[in-house]
Amino acid sequence: MKWIFFVVIACVASILAQDVVESPPEDTEDLERDESHGLRGGFQKPYHTWGVNHRENEKYFDYLFGKSLKAAITSPVFTTRQGPNKIPSGGKQSATLTGASAASDAPERTTKSYNPRAGEDNNYGYRPDSEYPPDNWQEKWPECGGGRQSPVNLALPSCEKDYGPPFQSIFFKKHPQTTIIRNLGHTVQYSFSYAGTPPILTGAFLDTEYLFAQLHFHFGSNDYTGSEHSINSVTYPMEMHLVFYNSIYNDTQEASNHPDGLLVLGFVYQVLESTPNQRFALYVSDVPTDGTEITIENPRGHRLFDFVGSMDFHYATYEGSLTTPPCSEAVTWIVSTRPKQISRHDLEVFRSLQGVEGPMADNNRPLQSLNGRTCVYH
What we know:
Distance between the termini: 63 Å
Order of helices and strands: HHEHEEEEEEEEEHEEHEEEHEEE
Structural class: alpha+beta
Helix content: 10-25%
Number of strands: 18
């Protein structure tokens, strides 16, 4: 009997000697269970340790790292976002919410406003009669005539093949506190504010973490053209770009000055009549003309997962540039080779937008030469 008593005492002493980890605060976010959110060993590069309970891992990530990373990642790029395409927000800050309200049942609240763009960076265009049509961009922005320009045709049979590890899409199911949708004259842009850490892309061939900045769209006036990239010489009516920047830089502006600074996920769309309308397109009609914008508090259907779905897809990657002036040659492109689907209704809502040159549709840059570059197919 005595030895049982001593065994119990020894076990209790061993437990008390272990480090006590403070419990994370409760939250109600609907998190993607197959994302990699392991935290053992800290915030490792290039791959994070995978955990078993991914919901708890995400909570601990925000709780343990959110405070220490907050100063580094909550820069103006997440509020008065001035993304890599040099699209200023006019100094207007998005509304700030407290706590975990984005994950609560609080209703959506919208605020419409007019915030016109001004400045010399807004006078490029896509039509022959533009002040600076695509063929003349390099006259004002010399880098647009460089040898690493985008978009390109991705001829998959000629791409190198690679079967490396998958991407790790972290916090892609995190609810934003606020969404701002802006008609920027040449595109419609979605930017988000988050509590704590924003979505992160890492893994695969990446040797660092890339932080999400904004997403925007390019689309055509018909069902056969509008995407910027072509896949095996086939073009599509829409292409979505998700812009990330290298976490070693402060923001997209700084990152655009470095060849490894930016990463853009590209997804082409095809029209499928039976596709349900997407909730993220619900407010596009509220930004009908250049300069109009809408701020949505407690947005629903605006997680990155709602835009891209699973990151388990085939893609082609190559080294390129921004597809709008100043055409900074700082982008690692990752383009999904399988088209996503968009409903006729949603596409027509995008086509109804008016920009600086009239209808915004056909806001896609012509294909550029590869100039000896190779693509890699995963």
